[in-house]
């Protein structure tokens, strides 16, 4: 990760097709020194902070379709099944450039003929011990990460002087390293599809498989870095599929929100310290013919605005609220309700601006819901419920009220309308 730069292509896991894809790195972030945990599976291990998400299989019971969910290390337990890399494109053969000794060289006493290969091959690299697992072992640990191979333990063997080895007696005691590996047998997934898929959800996948978490242990404070990857928002680190940061503080993040780059701690207890920028109003200021703010919880309003945006000549813009379960820290099943709450509490008013003319498109039938309902719905705001952060809550309430009053004035409506 220290060598990766913005614009580099990184392997990722396509969550729809379960295929291996390449995505561009759109940012590398220094997250400072934090407590780091080490997560270990049968063939892989990785260090990460407690809030780093991993792709975990959620088993929904007999007769139901299983699915993947994102869990942080702090939420994970031994026995959880994570998505790991099984195989990679072996690439092209490498042309060797051996510097062969010749007769007449002062270092050469006796020259025997040797047939050196001109190009690398899979079998040759296996023989040389370079292409074992996915290509490397970790010094001092004897761990091997596999790449479609069944790999045995790396161990030492000792043979005493006089022992026959390749039809010759050893002249002295000898020690050497030994590793055993073999190709895995192919599973008959056509004959027993349900049984095998229950054991390994990605059993017939070319590049990925499932492995159980064997251990999670605290390592201690270490410098940490993270990546942002376009599109899939995940990448493969040490053979394991992990989520990218994707939850950084942005100009559009609400004041008080806790993110990976504006975390809540002993020094900064309130999360993000500045007001969010209003992207919708920024686009309006550029004279865009049609601009609208919408929510997936109000489907009819959303569809009308989409139709109007598509039929308007010139550039149009729609700012649609999209709850993020991982970043906002709420269950997936509550996404629509949270999108609804944003509107009912005044956090996300629904309106449109057509050729500079403002129009509010939804008004709650009853009195606006209290802002605290929106705050309590998301884990990213839980620190604001502490007594010492009461001032931040009051600041958020004032901000919502001021934006609402400004919008009403622009639409030519009275304040009591909402």
What does the model show?
The chain is α+β, with helices and mostly antiparallel strands and 418 residues long. The protein is 18% helix and 28% strand. The protein is elongated. 22% of the residues are buried.
List the helices and strands and how they pair.
Blueprint: E1 9-13, E2 20-40, E3 45-49, E4 53-58, E5 67-72, E6 81-85, H1 122-128, E7 137-138, E8 143-144, E9 149-151, E10 155-159, E11 164-165, E12 168-169, E13 174-178, E14 181-183, H2 193-199, E15 208-212, E16 215-229, E17 234-237, E18 240-243, H3 279-284, E19 290-294, H4 299-311, E20 316-320, H5 325-329, H6 335-344, E21 351-354, E22 357-360, H7 371-376, H8 390-411
Major sheet description? 4 strands, antiparallel
Structural class category:
alpha+beta
> How many individual helices?
8
Overall pLDDT level: 81
| Shape estimate | elongated
Helix and strand string, N-terminal first? Answer: EEEEEEHEEEEEEEEHEEEEHEHEHHEEHH
- Estimate percent helicity: 10-25%
- How much of the polypeptide forms β-strand, as a percent range? 25-35%
Would you identify the regions where 5 or more consecutive residues have pLDDT less than 50?
133-146
What gap, in angstroms, lies between the N and C termini?
A: 50 Å
The number of distinct β-strands equals 22
Radius of gyration based on Cα positions: 29 Å
Features:
418 residues; four-stranded mixed sheet; 8 helices
Concise description?
With 418 residues, the protein is of the alpha+beta class. It has helices at residues 122-128, 193-199, 279-284, 299-311, 325-329, 335-344, 371-376, 390-411; strands spanning 9-13, 20-40, 45-49, 53-58, 67-72, 81-85, 137-138, 143-144, 149-151, 155-159, 164-165, 168-169, 174-178, 181-183, 208-212, 215-229, 234-237, 240-243, 290-294, 316-320, 351-354, 357-360.
């Amino acid at each position: 990760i220290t060598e990766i730069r913005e614009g580099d292509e990184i392997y990722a896991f396509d969550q729809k097709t379960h295929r291996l894809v390449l995505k561009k790195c759109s940012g590398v972030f220094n997250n400072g020194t934090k407590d780091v945990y080490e997560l270990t599976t049968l063939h892989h291990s990785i260090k990460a902070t407690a809030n780093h998400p991993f792709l975990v299989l959620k088993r929904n019971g007999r007769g139901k379709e299983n699915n993947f969910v994102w869990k942080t290390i702090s939420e994970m337990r031994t026995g959880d099944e994570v998505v790991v890399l099984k195989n990679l494109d072996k690439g092209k053969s490498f042309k060797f450039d051996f510097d062969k000794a010749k007769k007449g060289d002062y270092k050469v006493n006796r020259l025997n003929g040797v047939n050196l290969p001109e190009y690398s091959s899979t079998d040759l690299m296996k023989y040389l011990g370079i292409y074992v697992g996915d290509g490397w072992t970790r010094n001092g640990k004897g761990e091997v990460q596999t790449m479609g191979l069944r790999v045995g333990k790396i161990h030492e063997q000792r043979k005493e002087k006089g022992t026959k080895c390749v039809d010759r007696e050893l002249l002295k005691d000898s020690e050497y390293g030994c590793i055993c590996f073999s190709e895995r047998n192919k599973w008959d997934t056509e004959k027993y599809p349900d049984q095998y898929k229950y054991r390994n959800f990605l059993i017939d996948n070319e590049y990925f498989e499932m492995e159980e978490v064997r251990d999670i242990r605290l390592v201690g404070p270490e410098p940490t870095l993270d990546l942002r990857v376009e599109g899939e928002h995940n990448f493969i680190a040490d053979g394991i599929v992990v989520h990218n940061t994707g939850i950084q503080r942005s100009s559009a993040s609400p004041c008080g929100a806790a993110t990976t780059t504006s975390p809540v701690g002993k020094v900064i207890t309130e999360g993000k310290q500045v007001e969010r920028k209003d992207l919708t109003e920024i686009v309006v200021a550029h004279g865009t013919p049609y601009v609208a703010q919408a929510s997936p919880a109000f489907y009819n309003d959303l569809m009308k605005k989409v139709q109007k945006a598509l039929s308007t000549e010139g550039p149009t813009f729609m700012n649609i609220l999209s709850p993020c379960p991982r970043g906002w820290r709420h269950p997936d099943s509550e996404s629509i309700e949270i999108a609804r709450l944003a509107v009912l509490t005044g956090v996300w008013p629904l309106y449109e601006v057509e050729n500079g003319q403002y129009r509010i498109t939804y008004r709650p039938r009853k009195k606006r819901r209290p802002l605290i309902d929106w705050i309590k719905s998301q884990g990213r705001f839980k620190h604001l419920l502490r007594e010492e952060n009461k001032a931040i809550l009051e600041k958020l309430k004032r901000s919502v009220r001021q934006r609402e009053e400004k919008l009403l004035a622009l639409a030519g409506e009275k304040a009591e309308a909402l």
